[in-house]
Inverse folding.
């Protein structure tokens, strides 16, 4: 079997699909724009729902790509793909060309840049941080305010950049809710006396064991959930954050002083994915992610024959879903190549 | 020969339109308020009379403003209006000088050739005929452009042309027929008698070479008279009513009459003065960025004239005022729209031909179910005494870096000020007003007015142009209201703040409510020049774009707003500046979401450039003194 497959993106989905294809005998080129594979997982500490260390998942994935059939090209930014005589030619930012008989795009997602919601003060107030920043603090093992103090009152703002028409994202990123629940519990574990508040529109606990986690966070960890969108944030002279929010269940406006505020940034189509879509004429949906050929039985294929999608480049997914989606992509690629490219 | 039956349609039309114009003018004059009546009387017999005559000549005849906007479109309007004027003027002179009697009835000059077919043989007569032919050719050239424009609007430089009603169509056809039928009637007569100049003479002798010219001429004289008569009789029911109304409007405006905030004769006059030229459609960003082409001011004016329901049109507008700047008739389009938003749905007018000619005052459905708004839950307004008040406004609170910058600037200046809505304030009322909810807006205005009055301050500084506009226009306050751009300029000029130079290339976006809405163009740019290198864009001052975030539009989707915003941002950042500066928190937020270029308020740039006295790094001033109240 001489068929060559290019996998763009060395995150969870890309690594899984590369590993599966390599073990089925295909020559795989796996490209990653950063210097290390692993993608976003590298930045997380514990994963939901079971609070497993993300390094365990990372080592599984690294094991998957440790195979003779895989050529790993890190620091390689694929900017576009072209079709040529029935096969593909990928162009990188530094003008290299990679040939392949099939392409799997696993370009993943970008976290919503929280600066874009200026009213939340990210980048303006020192103690407004993003969910990703908090994971780094967890990894370091210390949660501190910018001035070095231990925070006693911490708020989580759900739906930052998700379900928000004003930033152009009407979709739900679906993982921020459970991530907030997990982070809230972890904060309470680190800081026994801290008070934690989650400001939400709806709590969406659609995954396996999520609802259980949500209950546990209230019963065991005493996390407070307040239904209402944060409207404005200001800072007083002590560097405390003044948060204005309407408690829509109690039907009254609230004004709270918090030591730290965590913004649950949503997921957006990655910049790299967007560039490739534009270059190759790949269809994207209303949500700007790659549009699958069919929502029920073609979620790994798009509008260009021989180009496949794996993972969060098609929609927000958790790691479990990304890996499953990647395996499905591998199966689809094998079928395509062994059936005479159909 | 003194009379022929074919002149009857023309005469009926002419006397009808003259009587109608007089009656309608009297009715409008009667409907004006007492002050406006006085203004008009004083204006008519005063110095503004000369101004009006000049404006009528420059705008109604020459169409200077349309010429400036678009040469071909202007030429079309000018050739028809000015050409027709010349034709009437020199036709009258011709009849008086060369005719059998002097001081003739109008038909004698209009149909001069019919009654004096031999005219044009001697030297002076021939020269005069040449001149008359030249005028006719001038008009016909414009007419050809008008026909082409109707078929393909792009030729005269317009992207969109207004859509017509059936009556307009009949009137338009009769208007189009006037000059070709005159040409043919005169040509046939000239051909029969061997007179006429380069146009009618040549065409006439050619036609006479194979047609019985003498017999052919008569039906065309009938057609000429009929098309004139039809046009005059239909004129009040069509958009061509703009021709007589504009004259009245020019006198009224030069006498100092303005739209104000209530509907009335002046508003109606403005609606009738609209010629549906379509320049407002070209200027409108909803047209060129969002593909909406049926809500522009020309359509609003048409709806008001026809007493149609215009709610969908009225509320589908950014209220940016770009069309006001472009309107060649100078109609105050945005204020008229504001009035329409307040008045609500019109009662459909009675049917019948008399009602069509004399529609009477428009009536509106009064909504009796609306309860009186209640803002009783607001705390009683209290503010400490201060010289200067700072009102950030809701939008600025949603753009905290602007608010922080203003606090930094005010603290550094050493001015004794009070930040009146530091802990949140009450809305200025303009969003409600834009939504047509005047009563509710008044409640908020009263609340804020009390707050401001009790402080005894002399100056109110606001960061948001939306607040600035309503504070100046609808609050009755004995206080100077300034936008922060004006106040920062004052602080710089008085030496109260010191600035370093930022070495950045900056373009400036003029916010609608600050620029066209309040006439503040120069101060923000002067401030910017103190801190950075200011580049010019294609859209400066009156021609500035709307960011798309306008609170004025109640109809378009977020997506359409975003497409306006990205077009505007792209146009402004064409020369790849380091910073896209503006002076409105809403513009800042909207543009920032639509471009990768950094968008900053001028207050942020000034705060960045400020050279603080004393030891840097130590927080001082107001921020250091106040503790926020805490609940929960």
């Amino acid at each position: 079997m001489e068929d060559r497959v290019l996998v763009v993106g060395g995150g969870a989905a890309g690594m899984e699909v590369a590993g599966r294809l390599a073990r089925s005998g295909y020559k795989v080129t796996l490209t990653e724009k950063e210097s290390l594979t692993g993608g976003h997982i590298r930045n997380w500490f514990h994963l939901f729902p079971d609070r497993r260390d993300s390094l365990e998942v990372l080592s599984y994935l690294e094991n998957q790509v440790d195979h003779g059939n895989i050529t790993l090209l890190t620091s390689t930014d694929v900017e576009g793909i072209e079709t040529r005589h029935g096969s593909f030619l990928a162009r990188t930012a530094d003008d290299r060309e990679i040939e392949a008989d099939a392409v799997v795009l696993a370009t993943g997602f970008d976290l919503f840049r929280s600066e874009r919601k200026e009213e939340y003060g990210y980048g303006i107030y020192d103690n407004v941080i993003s969910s990703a920043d908090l994971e780094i603090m967890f990894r370091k093992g210390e949660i501190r305010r910018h001035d070095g103090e231990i925070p006693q009152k911490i708020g989580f703002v759900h739906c930052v950049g998700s379900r928000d028409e004003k930033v152009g994202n009407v979709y739900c990123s679906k993982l921020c809710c459970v991530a907030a629940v997990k982070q809230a519990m972890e904060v309470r574990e680190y800081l026994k006396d801290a008070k934690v508040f989650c400001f939400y529109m709806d709590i969406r606990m659609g995954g396996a064991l999520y609802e259980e986690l949500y209950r546990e966070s209230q019963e065991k960890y005493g996390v407070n959930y307040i239904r209402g969108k944060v409207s404005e944030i200001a800072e007083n002279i002590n560097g405390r954050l003044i948060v204005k929010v309407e408690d829509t269940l109690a039907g009254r406006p609230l004004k709270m002083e918090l030591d730290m505020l965590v913004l649950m940034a949503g997921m957006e189509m990655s910049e790299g994915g967007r560039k490739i879509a534009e270059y190759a004429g790949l269809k994207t949906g209303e949500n700007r992610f790659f549009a699958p050929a069919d929502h029920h039985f073609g979620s790994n294929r798009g509008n260009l024959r021989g180009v496949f999608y794996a993972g969060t480049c098609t929609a927000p997914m958790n790691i479990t879903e990304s890996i499953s989606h990647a395996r499905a992509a591998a199966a689809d690629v094998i079928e395509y190549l062994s059936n005479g490219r159909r | 020969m003194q009379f022929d039956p074919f002149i009857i349609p023309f005469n009926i039309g002419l006397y009808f339109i003259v009587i109608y114009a007089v009656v309608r003018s009297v009715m409008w004059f009667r409907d004006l308020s007492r002050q406006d009546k006085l203004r008009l009387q004083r204006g008519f017999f005063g110095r503004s009379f000369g101004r009006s005559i000049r404006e009528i000549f420059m705008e109604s005849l020459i169409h200077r403003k349309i010429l400036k906007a678009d040469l071909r479109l202007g030429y079309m309007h000018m050739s028809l209006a000015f050409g027709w004027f010349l034709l009437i003027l020199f036709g009258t002179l011709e009849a008086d000088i060369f005719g059998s009697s002097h001081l003739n009835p109008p038909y004698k000059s209009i149909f001069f050739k019919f009654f004096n077919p031999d005219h044009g043989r001697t030297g002076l007569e021939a020269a005069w005929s040449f001149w008359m032919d030249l005028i006719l050719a001038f008009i016909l050239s414009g007419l050809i452009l008008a026909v082409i424009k109707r078929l393909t609007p792009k030729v005269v430089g317009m992207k969109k042309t207004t859509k017509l009603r059936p009556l307009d169509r009949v009137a338009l056809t009769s208007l189009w027929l006037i000059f070709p039928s005159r040409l043919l009637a005169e040509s046939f007569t000239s051909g029969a008698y061997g007179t006429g100049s380069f146009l009618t003479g040549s065409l006439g002798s050619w036609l006479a070479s194979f047609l019985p010219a003498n017999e052919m001429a008569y039906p065309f004289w009938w057609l000429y008279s009929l098309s004139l008569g039809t046009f005059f009789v239909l004129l009040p029911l069509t958009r061509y009513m703009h021709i007589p109304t504009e004259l009245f409007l020019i006198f009224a405006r030069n006498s100092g009459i303005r739209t104000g905030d209530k509907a009335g004769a002046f508003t109606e006059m403005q609606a009738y003065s609209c010629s549906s030229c379509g320049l407002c459609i070209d200027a409108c960003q909803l047209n060129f960025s969002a593909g909406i082409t049926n809500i522009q001011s020309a359509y609003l004016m048409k709806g008001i004239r026809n007493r149609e329901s215009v709610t969908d049109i009225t509320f589908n507008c950014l209220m940016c005022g770009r069309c006001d700047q472009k309107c060649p008739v100078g109609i105050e389009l945005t204020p008229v729209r504001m009035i329409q938003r307040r008045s609500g749905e019109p009662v459909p007018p009675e049917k019948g031909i008399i009602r069509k000619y004399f529609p009477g005052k428009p009536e509106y459905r009064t909504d009796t179910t609306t309860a009186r708004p209640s803002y009783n839950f607001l705390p009683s307004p209290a503010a400490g005494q201060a010289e200067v008040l700072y009102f950030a406004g809701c939008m600025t609170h949603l753009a905290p870096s602007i608010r922080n910058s203003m606090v930094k600037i005010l603290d550094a200046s050493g001015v004794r000020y009070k930040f009146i809505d530091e802990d949140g304030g009450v809305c200025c009322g303009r969003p409600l007003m834009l939504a047509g909810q005047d009563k509710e807006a008044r409640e908020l205005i009263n609340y804020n007015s009390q707050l401001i009055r009790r402080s005894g301050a002399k100056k109110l500084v606001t960061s948001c142009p939306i607040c600035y506009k309503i504070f100046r226009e609808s609050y009755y306050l004995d206080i100077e209201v300034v936008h922060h751009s004006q106040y920062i300029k004052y602080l710089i000029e008085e030496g109260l703040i010191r600035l370093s130079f930022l070495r950045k290339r900056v373009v400036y976006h003029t916010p609608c409510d600050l620029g066209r809405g309040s006439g503040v163009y120069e101060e923000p740019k002067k401030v910017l020049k103190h801190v950075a290198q200011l580049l010019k864009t294609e859209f400066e001052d009156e021609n500035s774009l709307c960011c798309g975030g306008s609170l004025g539009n109640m109809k378009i989707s977020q997506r359409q707003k975003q497409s306006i915003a990205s077009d505007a941002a792209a146009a402004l950042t064409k020369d790849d500046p380091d910073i896209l500066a503006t002076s409105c928190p809403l513009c800042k937020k909207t543009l920032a979401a639509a471009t990768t270029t950094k968008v900053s308020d001028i207050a942020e740039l000034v705060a960045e450039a400020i050279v603080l006295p004393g030891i840097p790094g130590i927080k001082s001033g107001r921020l250091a003194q106040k503790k926020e109240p805490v609940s929960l």
User: Anything to note?
Assistant: Chain A touches chain B at residues 116, 118-119, 121, 124-125, 165-168, 231-238, 240, 242, 244, 254-257 (CB under 8 Å). The CA atoms of residues 135 and 251 of chain A lie 33 Å apart. Chain A has a mean pLDDT of 94.
